[in-house]
Amino acid sequence: MNIPYRTSRDYQLLKKLLDEGKEIVCFADFPIDNRIFRDVCKARKIGEGRYSITCRGCEYASFWENHNYKWTFEDEMQMANIEFIEPNI
Question: Does residue 1 form part of some domain?
Fold first, then answer.
C-alpha cells in the first residue's frame, strides 16, 4: 500500500502515547478475497491496562495487562501488523 505518511512500528512509543491519553491513527491488515487491504484504525487506551485498535466496530488488536498473556503489548501489535502515524505536535 502506498501510504504517503511516515509510519512507525515502534510499539513502545505507541504504548507510551496511549498511556498519555492520546488516540493514535493506525493502519491494520484487512484480508478479503485472498488479498490484504489496510484499514485506517484508532488506537486508544480503554481502561486501566487495556488497549484497543478498532475500525468500524472491528477490533484488530487488543491487550489487557491484567491477563496472564504469553505475549506483550509489542507482540500483539506485531502479530496484527499495526503501523501508526507518529504525532508531530
Answer: no
Number of helices (H) and strands (E), helices first, in the chain? 2, 6
**Residue 41 placed within a domain:** yes
The residues with which 24 forms a beta bridge, in sequence order, are: 43
> Quick check: 5 and 85 in contact, CB under 8 A?
yes
Residue 60 lies in a domain: yes
For the stretch 23-68, pLDDT in tens is: 999 999 988 999 988 899 999 999 999 999 999 888 999 999 887 6
Backbone angles phi, psi at 35, to 5 degrees: -130, 155
Instruction: Residue 57: give the domain boundaries.
Output: 7-85
